[in-house]
Amino acid sequence: MLSAAALARTLIVALLAGVLAFAPARAQQVITTTTVTWTYTVSGGDEGDVFGDDEGFIDEDEALLGDDAMAADAGADDFGGATRRYAPHADLATLGRAKAQYGPFSVIDGTTVRMAGDVDGATPRQFAAMMAAHPTLKRIEMVDCPGSLDEAANLILARAIRRAGMETIVPRGGSVRSGAVELWMAGVRRSAAPDAEFGVHSWADEYGREARDYPESDPVHAEYLSYYREMGLDDTKARAFYTMTNATPFDDVTYLTRDDMARYVTLN
Question: What is the residue range of 129's domain?
């Protein structure tokens, strides 16, 4: 029989052997679990898809927005620093009961969406998600729209509205201001109630510089003039409208009526 001391030594050796045998297996488990890496590309905005770069998935939002889909991410650089065209209002109008909400857009029924609120970098993708979910939408009622916090995104959204064949309407008591005026101009058909309000002023970049602070040859001016021509204004009216809006400083607003807008833009 083993003595008590020998038995103790045997048990210690057996215990150490067990520990040594277990240690490599445990170390391998740690390596395995910590070296597995999942890489995702997030396509921006609250409704953006998540997909692997090499999986071949189509981003539905990008397909709806077209080639300009990623331009909003570039921010001010693509537009000479123009980042804001925004005129806040005292109160946002009541939209009524909505079937679904996508940022500033509220789906009212199968053909109508109401808009109240500003445009930021996420808004183009919110619009794309809305159109994917509600493809029969035909008109946007612009109830209370103060403008854009991101001009690159605003112009992307405007072109998406035009490509979608949407009608834009400023209803009775409605107000569109600043960058939202460009959105209203994007409609394939544009209309406004007799008391509709249009507020215009100059854009401003992230450093507080306004349109008048940039030389006439700067590409940022050409971007706006090109957009106005895309929306049906001839060159003379495009330049006149752009000059008129920029005559009012960014921190002020000039209010126009439906008849004032009709001097520049065809109403239906």
Answer: 71-262
What is the chain's Cα-based Rg? 29
Count of structural domains, the chain: 1
Residue range 110-145, pLDDT digits in tens? 999 999 999 999 999 999 999 999 999 999 999 999
Contacting residues for 93 by C-beta, under 8 A, at least 6 apart: 116, 143, 144, 173, 174, 175
Q: Dihedral through CA 76, CA 151, CA 263, CA 166, nearest 10?
A: 140
CA dihedral 48, 189, 138, 162 (to 10 degrees): -20
Q: Is residue 8 part of a domain?
A: no
> Within a domain: residue 179?
yes
For 146-219, strand residue ranges (E) read 147-148, 167-170, 175-177, 189-192, 197-200, 204-205
CATH code, domain carrying 208: 3.90.226
